[in-house]
Design a protein that fits this description.
5 helices, 27% helix, 7-stranded mixed sheet
Length: 219
């Protein structure tokens, strides 16, 4: 995959092909993470911890066992577990979320996405994001006296939030440009958040191909 990007096989002038290859790379990394799960030799479990998945592309397509994970992207603790689950990415031509992302934050919609293990490409011409995945959060309220307290936010076993992915395939991408793109996603999310207590993960991925031997991923 690194060679495909480094050889300009997925350059911007080739349209959406770069986004497709980037999404395929994400799915390959998810398979690698599944292979590291205990008792999953036949790949019957699709859901993987978000940390395991997100560290794989950071490590150049290697699992955490093969490289240095560095700091976890999401805090691992007994009260919050975040999982990623997708084995394919489909095209979604709907444009209802062009003005507002409120639909993309609907938990029933996200739960169905997660359980059917799919992500989707957004409509052509969307200037902010390219791919959407669903994440599952298993959370517990703060413990009091050794007993898990109940609350409206912890009454359900699982909750679901969106992961918005913006993919940039350019020969160079400065930190200022990255900040602008991140703020675009943040503003769009906040505008469509409504009364939801849940957040979202906004992921900016830059595949730079100016240096043949190196592929940079900026998060």
């Amino acid at each position: 995959m690194k060679d495909l990007f480094s050889d300009h096989f997925c350059s911007p002038e080739k349209g959406d092909f770069g986004e497709v290859m980037a999404a395929l790379y994400f799915l390959f990394c998810a398979d690698i993470a599944r292979g590291s799960l205990k008792d999953n030799k036949e790949y019957t479990t699709f859901s993987v911890p978000l940390n395991d998945w997100i560290n794989c592309p950071i490590n150049g397509g290697r699992s955490g066992d093969d490289g240095d994970n560095g700091d976890d992207m999401m805090t691992k603790n007994n009260d919050c577990q975040v999982h990623f689950s997708a084995i394919q990415v489909c095209q979604n031509y709907a444009r209802e979320y062009d003005d507002s992302w409120s639909l993309l934050q609907n938990e029933v919609f996200l739960e169905n996405m997660y359980k059917t293990v799919v992500g989707f490409y957004v409509f052509a011409g969307c200037s902010v994001i390219d791919v959407v995945f669903a994440l599952q959060i298993s959370a517990a309220a703060p413990r009091k006296g050794g007993v898990t307290a109940t609350s409206s936010s912890s009454s359900k076993k699982h909750q679901y939030v969106p992961m918005f992915v913006s993919i940039k395939l350019q020969s160079s991408f400065c930190p200022k440009s990255a900040s602008i793109e991140c703020n675009k996603m943040k503003s769009k999310f906040e505008a469509g958040k409504g009364g939801s207590e849940l957040g979202a993960l906004c992921l900016l991925v830059v595949f730079a191909s100016s240096v043949k031997s190196k592929m940079e991923t900026i998060l």
